[in-house]
Amino acid sequence: MSSSIAVLASGRGSNLQSLLDYLAMHSSNGTVTLVASDRPDAGALALARTRDIKTCALDMGTRHEALLAALLDHHAADIIVLAGYLRLVPSSVIQSFRGRMLNVHPALLPAFGGKGMYGSRIHRAVLASGARVSGATVHFVDEVYDRGAIIAQWPVPVYGDDTETTLAARVLRAEHALLPRVVDRVAGGRIALGADNRVRGVMDTPAPEDAFALADGTGLGAAIDAALALAGS
Ligand code: GRF
Fold first, then answer.
1. How far is the CA of 128 from the centre of ligand 1 (A)?
2. pLDDT per residue over 55-65, tens digit each?
3. Alpha-carbon distance values, 216 to 98, 100, 210 (Å)
4. Are 37 and 70 within 8 A, CB to CB?
5. Is residue 6 within 8 Å of residue 167, measured between CB atoms?
6. Neighbours of 74 (CB within 10 A)
7. In the sheet that 133-140 helps form, which strands lie side by side, from edge to edge?
8. What are the angstrom distances between the C-alpha of 91 and each of 12, 145, 215?
9. Could you give the angle at the alpha carbon of 35 between the alpha carbons of 113 and 86, nearest 5°?
10. Which residues contact 86 (CB under 8 A, 6 or more apart)?
11. In sequence order, what are the residues at sequence separation of 6 or more whose Cβ sits closer than 8 angstroms to the Cβ of residue 137?
């Protein structure tokens, strides 16, 4: 049975696009059936319309909580993917989707996460810190920004001459390869959140030299597939 996936996104929607493309090509575990945004002009909504996926621009007034809950209920979402969604999801929704809501974050959590850490601010903070490694993280969502159990991470190098733009682009390539593969495996039941808040099927992170060799080139998807295939239980 194919899981029904709702995507919440505030921005241009490149992660949504990579998810749609991956599911169409490689997976029968899940289908994106709804894309909702807090921004009526979000690129993600425009993209969803071109793919004939139902869309919803959320009213961010006092009804956010009830509206979001009703929307997800109405569309019978099995899984929610936060793909660049900038709002804190109401806790009632988080509770009812425990272990079924994922977020992608453009840094290696638990570093460079939390309230106010989004978009270029993250990459600016990474560069300012002098960190030599950044990357993408996919995690289950809990009530606190960027805190939920980590499922998978993929590291990328930070170079001395990086700018926010070059670093963001390198991390985004990792996000695009990582997020769809993790969503597919959650949808297929191969990755799950246990009652003890530990992740079953968590991915082994590759050796940095292997990951770094792929950071600017092709082969990333195949390498992530291999790391996920090795995942222990
Ligand atoms: C991505 O970097 C994502 O990790 C972050 O916001 C950005 C969204 O980009 N949370 P897009 O809208 O998917 O292109």
1. 21
2. 999 877 667 77
3. 35, 31, 12
4. no
5. no
6. 11
7. 54-57, 30-37, 3-8, 79-82, 101-105, 133-140, 150-157
8. 25, 11, 36
9. 25
10. 10, 11, 38, 118
11. 104, 105, 107, 108, 109, 113, 150, 152, 153
Residue bearing the CA closest to ligand 1, atom 8: 84
**pLDDT averaged over every residue in the chain:** 91
Question: Which residues are the active-site residues?
Answer: 105
Contact of 152 with 201, CB cutoff 8 Å: no
According to DSSP, residue 93 is labeled H
- Which residues line the pocket of ligand 1, CB cutoff 6 A? 9, 11-15, 44, 83-84, 104-106, 172, 175
- 104-138 residue pLDDT tens: 999 999 999 998 899 999 999 999 999 999 999 99
Is 213:165 a contact under the CB 8 Å cutoff? no
- Looking up tokens 């079953």 gives 200
pLDDT in tens, 51-100: 999 999 987 766 777 778 888 888 889 999 999 998 888 888 999 999 99
At 140, list the tokens. Answer: 């289950």
The single residue listed with the structure tokens 């425990």 is 98
Ligand 1 atom at minimal distance to the Cα of residue 83: 13
Amino acid at site 197:
N
Amino acid identity, position 187 = A
User: CB neighbours (10 Å) of residue 50?
Assistant: 7
Q: Give the residues across from 101 on adjacent strands.
A: 80
Residue with tokens 């993280």: 137
Query: Which residues, in sequence order, are bridge partners of residue 5?
Result: 32, 79
By DSSP bridging, strand 3-8 and strand 133-140 are unpaired
